[in-house]
């Protein structure tokens, strides 16, 4: 079946792309473009389901609804990988921020209440 090769290739390409280019401006633009294309495909599937059924038969899928489901599975995997990589990036940023705050605190410690001489400044 042609659809099996298409889906496997799509998944492999998405994983490779995100692992190599995540966080770049180009990747962000392609993510937005892919999301827009998926939305257009969804509208197309609602407006012209018979054409989606024909497209499905061309790629070896029995029904158009199955083709939409397969596209949704690939899109979900794409969204999951994207979310995971974003959280991983945020976690790294928070760790760097905490490290910077800790280093800054160690360099110039603030006086504690016991160190004051009791006078107002």
Characterization of the model:
- By secondary structure, the chain is mainly α.
- The radius of gyration is 25 Å and the shape is elongated.
- It is built from 4 helices and no strands.
- It starts with a helix and ends in a 14-residue tail after the last helix.
- The protein has one domain.
- The mean pLDDT is 82.
Q: Which regions are unreliable across 5 or more consecutive residues at pLDDT < 50?
A: none
Any idea what the radius of gyration is?
25 Å
Structural class: mainly alpha
Mean pLDDT: 82
Number of domains: 1
Number of helices: 4
Most strands sheet: none
Shape: elongated
End-to-end C-alpha gap: 81 Å
Quick rundown:
With 121 residues, the protein is an all-alpha fold.
């Amino acid at each position: 079946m042609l659809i099996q090769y298409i889906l496997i290739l799509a998944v492999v390409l998405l994983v490779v792309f995100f692992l190599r280019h995540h966080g770049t401006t180009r990747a962000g633009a392609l993510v937005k473009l892919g999301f827009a294309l998926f939305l257009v495909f969804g509208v197309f599937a609602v407006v012209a389901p018979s054409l989606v059924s024909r497209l499905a038969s061309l790629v070896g899928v029995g029904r158009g609804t199955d083709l939409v489901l397969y596209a949704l599975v690939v899109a979900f995997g794409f969204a999951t990988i994207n979310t995971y990589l974003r959280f991983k990036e945020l976690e790294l940023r928070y760790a760097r921020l905490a490290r910077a705050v800790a280093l800054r605190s160690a360099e110039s410690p603030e006086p504690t209440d016991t160190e004051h001489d009791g006078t107002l400044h």
